[in-house]
Amino acid sequence: MADKRKRRRPADDSDSDSELPFKSKLKSDSAILQTLKTLKDSAASSSETKPLTLSDLNLSTACREVTDRSLSSVQSSIESLILSFAHSILAGNGFSFSVPSRSAANQLYVPELDRIVLKDKSAVRPFANVSTVRKTTVTTRILQLIHQLCLKSIHVTKRDLFYTDVKLFQDQTQSDAVLDDVSCILGCTRSSLNVVAAEKGVVVGRLIFSDNGDMIDCTKMGMGGKAIPPNIDRVGDMQSDALFILLVEKDAAYMRLAEDRFYNRFPCIIVTAKGQPDVATRLFLKKMKTELKLPVLALVDSDPYGLKILSVYGCGSKNMSYDSANLTTPDIKWLGIRPSDLDKYKIPEQCRLPMTEQDIKTGKDLLEEDFVKKNSGWVEELSLMVKSKQKAEIQALSTFGFQYLTEVYLPLKLQQKDWL
Amino acid sequence: MADKRKRRRPADDSDSDSELPFKSKLKSDSAILQTLKTLKDSAASSSETKPLTLSDLNLSTACREVTDRSLSSVQSSIESLILSFAHSILAGNGFSFSVPSRSAANQLYVPELDRIVLKDKSAVRPFANVSTVRKTTVTTRILQLIHQLCLKSIHVTKRDLFYTDVKLFQDQTQSDAVLDDVSCILGCTRSSLNVVAAEKGVVVGRLIFSDNGDMIDCTKMGMGGKAIPPNIDRVGDMQSDALFILLVEKDAAYMRLAEDRFYNRFPCIIVTAKGQPDVATRLFLKKMKTELKLPVLALVDSDPYGLKILSVYGCGSKNMSYDSANLTTPDIKWLGIRPSDLDKYKIPEQCRLPMTEQDIKTGKDLLEEDFVKKNSGWVEELSLMVKSKQKAEIQALSTFGFQYLTEVYLPLKLQQKDWL
Q1: How far is C-alpha B372 from the geometric centre of its chain's CA atoms?
Q2: Whether pLDDT at B5 is above 80
Q3: Can you tell me which residues form the catalytic site (chains A, B) (predicted)?
Q4: What integer pLDDT is reported at residue B389 of this predicted model?
Q5: Do B403 and A154 touch (CB under 8 A)?
C-alpha cells in the first residue's frame, strides 16, 4: 500500500524508488547469490591450505606466541613453575621470573602472517632485588589467583582480579599489566587464564552455536540478537549455511540489518562489537572464520577510525601482540563505506563531515602502517580520504531513505564484488 | 577436590570457607526461598490494586503524559494534524504547532506517583514568524519522516533520522529535540514513533518472551544472555516462574551471576544495562514488572552514581519526564551494595575508595531530591555515605573470593530481607 501511494505522487517523497540512486543497476537476488557462492568457495579453498604459522617462516628474528590451553594444563604449568621456585629457594638461589618484554621495541609486523607478533626479548624479574621485589610479589599473587580459578573452573573479569588484593595491587593498571605478563610467562592466552573482558558484541543471522551448553539459533533471536559470550572457551558446535560474515562497526547499521532480516535475503551472519572491537568479539569472529571457513566483509564508517577498527580485527592491537594468532582474523575485505563511495553513491555534501586535524593525522599515520601498505586498494582509498578531507558515517546512506543500506547499497556492493 | 585441599591447609588460602565472613549465618536455600515467595506475593498483591494514574490524583496543577499508541493511530494523528493545517492555510490563517514545554520549570515530581511528570504549559510555534519558521519547518519534516516509518512499519535510530535531512537539521541535537517535541505534540511515546535507541542491556534467567516473533528462553542463553531488543513494541508473551527481578548496575557482576546460574538456585530474572540505563532496558524492566508482577531488587555500586542509576529506573530522567509513566518502574528495592554494608560486611579499607569532591556534591544534591527524601532508609544510607566520604564498587566483594557475591552476600541479603 505504501508503494502504491508513492507511485501516485512521486514528487513529494524523497524516498520514492525512482529517485534511489543505482537501484536500477541491481540484478536479481539469485544472480547476486551466485556471486556470493563463488566468494565463499574461494574463501573455503584458501583456508584448506594450512594457514602459515610463525614456525613455518624461518624468520631471522625469533618470535614468541601464546596458545590456547586447557585449564588443567595451565594449572599444572603453574604448579611446576612454583615447584621449581621451591627447589631454587631450597638450593639457596632465591627465585626469579623470566618475563617476555611486551614493549614496542620487541614487536614485529610479519607481512607473511599479516599480523603483529612479539619478538623473544625477556627480562629477569628477581625477588631478591629492591627494584623488582614488588612486581615479583604481584606476579606470584596473580599466579596464585589464576590457580584458584583453575581449581574452581570459573571466569572472572580483570576488575574482579584487582579487587581480590587491592592492598598489594594498589591500582588496576598494575594487576592488568602483570596479568599480560603471566599470559606470556605461561605461554597461553588470557582466555586460557579464565580472565575475560566484559561482553559488548552481538550476533544475529544464519548461525547456530552452543553457549555454555545451551544451543543458540541466531536466526531466532528477534531484532535484539544474541549477546556474544565473554568466555570463548564455552562456545562451540558452530553450524551455518551462510555465504559470508558481515562485520558491522556500528549498532545502528546492525539494527537496520537485523530488523530487515538481511540474512534471509542473502544468507549471512551479522556481527558487531558496537564500536571499538573487544576481545570477546574478536575471538568470536576468529572462531567463526576458522570453523565455518566463511569470507568476512566489513561495513565501517568512512573515516580513519573505521579503518583502524578493521585493522584491529585483522592484524591485532599492539597491546596484545603476544596473542595475535588467536585474536586476529586474516583476510577481512573492506566492503564499505569507502572514501570512493562518497562520490560514487552521490552522498550529498551536507551528509559528509569535514575531517578534523586529528583525523587527518590518524589517516596519515595509517598510511605508514605495514598492514595498510600491503593492500594497494586500501592505500588508494585512504589517500583519497586524506586528500578530500571528508569523512562519512554508515548512517549517511539514510539520506536516500532508511532502508537504502539494505535494499540498494549492500546488494549492489555484493553484486559488483565491490570489496578490497 | 579443591575443597579438600583447602581444608587440609586452611591458613594459606584467603578464599577458604572458614574465613568467609557471615557464611555461617546462611540458612538453607529453602528457608530463603520461603522469604522470597512472601516478597513476591506482596508485590503481586500490591500490583492488583490498580496503579494510580495522573487522572486519579486531582492535582491542582494540570499535567500531561504521553501513552503508547499503535502505528496506525500515530499515522492517522499525523494525517489529521496536517489536514487541519491545510484547512487553516486555505482559510488564510497560515499554520502553527502547539508544543508542550519540556523545560525544568514545567516539570513536577508527584510523590503519589513517585515520578517526575510534565505540567501543561505549551508554546505556540507559528510558521509565519521569523523566529520560529525554521523550527516549524523542522517539526513538519520530522512529522513527515515519522509518517514514512508508519507506512513502512520499520524502526530507525535518532541518528538515521538526522541523516535523512542533514541540510535542514544541521546537527543532531536539533532533530533529537524536535523529535521529543513531536512525541509531546502527538501525545505518544517515542517508541510509538518507531524511533529507537541503540540496545545496550542484556537479560538472563527465568524468563521466556517473544522478540519480533521468535520465542526466547532466557535460561538457555548460556553466559552471554539475550540482548534486550531496541524496539519494545515487538516484545511480548512474557512468562516466568521467577520470584524476583535482580537489576544489576554493572556487567562484571552480571557475568558472575550468569556464569554461576544464580537464577537456578534462587529463581529470578537478571538484567543489566551495563551502566547508565538506556531507554530500551528501562522499557523492558517496566514491561517485566507490569506483566509478571515481580518485585525488583537492585544491586548497584555504593556511590552517588549507583543511587542515581536506581533513581532513573525508578522515577525517570528529567529529560524524558513527559514519558515517565512508560519508562519508570515504581517500587524498586535497594538491595546493595549499601553504604552500611561496607562496615557490616567488613569490606577492607583498601577496597573502599575515597569520594571525590564531585561525588560528595552529587551525594548532597541527591539528598535534596524528593524521590530520595520519601524513603527514610535511603536518606539514612546516603547520609552515611556523604559523612564517611567512602564509596565501593560491587566488585569490592571479590576481596573475599570471586564467588562471595553469589554464594554469601546475595543469599544472606535475601534471607535477611535486607532491602530498602
Answers
A1: 16
A2: no
A3: 163
A4: 95
A5: yes
pLDDT of residue A206: 96
pLDDT, tens only, B47-77: 766 777 777 877 777 887 888 889 999 999 9
- Contact (CB<8Å) B399/A165: yes
The nearest alpha carbon in chain B to A219 belongs to: B214
- Residue A57 located in a structural domain: no
Parallel/antiparallel/unpaired status of strands B296-299 and B332-336: parallel
Q: B223 and B168, same structural domain?
A: no
Tally of domains in chain B: 2
> Same domain for B309 and B185?
no
Domain with B146, as residue range(s), is 63-196
- What CATH number corresponds to the domain at position B136? 1.10.10.10
The answer to whether A271 and A295 have CB atoms below 8 angstroms apart is no
Residue-level pLDDT at B313? 92
The count of C-alpha atoms lying within 13 angstroms of the C-alpha of A283, restricted to the half-sphere facing its C-beta, is 24
Sign of CA dihedral B125, B131, B134, B138: negative
CB contacts of B160 in chain A (<8 Å) are 252, 256, 395, 398, 402
Query: Is residue B319 over pLDDT 90?
Result: no
Bridge partners for B226 per DSSP: A226, B203
What is the reported pLDDT for B18? 52
pLDDT at B269 (0 to 100): 97
8 Å CB contact of B402 and A164: yes
Residue at which a domain ends, from A136, A166, A196: A196
DSSP bridge partners of B247: B271, B298
The amino acid occupying position A46 is: S
Nearest to A402 among B1, B160, B222 (CB): B160
Of A241-245, B142-146, B228-232, give the lowest mean pLDDT range.
Answer: B228-232
**Residue A9 pLDDT:** 42
Q: What's the rounded Cα separation, in Å, for the pair B329 and B114?
A: 10
Count of A-B CB contacts under 8 Å: 195
Alpha carbons A317 and A321: distance in angstroms, whole number: 6
Of B196, B220, B253, at which residue does a domain stop? B196
| Angle separating helix axes B133-152 and B71-90, nearest 10 degrees | 140
- Are B375 and B404 contained in the same domain? yes
| A contact test, residue of B7, B14, B164 with most A CBs within 10 A | B164
Q: Which residue of B has its CA nearest to A261?
A: B212
Residue B1: pLDDT band (50, 70, 90) is very low
Q: Which residues of B touch A259 (CB under 8 A)?
A: 154-155, 212, 231
CA distance B304 to chain A (A): 20
Nearest residue in A to B211, CA atom: A222
- Residues at the binding site of B for Mg(2+) are 249, 301
Least confident residue range of A241-255, B30-44, B102-116: B102-116
pLDDT < 50: residue spans in chain A: 1-17
